[in-house]
Request: fold
Amino acid sequence: MNQQEVKNILLNLQNKQYIESDITHTFSENNTPVFSVKYLKNDQSFEVIQIETKSLQRFDNVDSAVHCINNLIAK
Reply:
């Protein structure tokens, strides 16, 4: 998955069409969830959670969240 595809996923989560919904996108490897991302409408931020470690990071902008996700994908 390239950087633009990740950015499109995040922009889709942020889309006003879904703003009243709580949507989480989970990234998996070999059908095992690795991390998830969701848009927090009240905080206007993205939350990235590494499932195994339960590590949570929040990002105020799309590009920072994309950078984090790309690093997780590269692991």
Remarks:
- The beta strands are 24-29, 32-40, 45-50, 55-59.
- Helices lie at 3-14, 62-74.
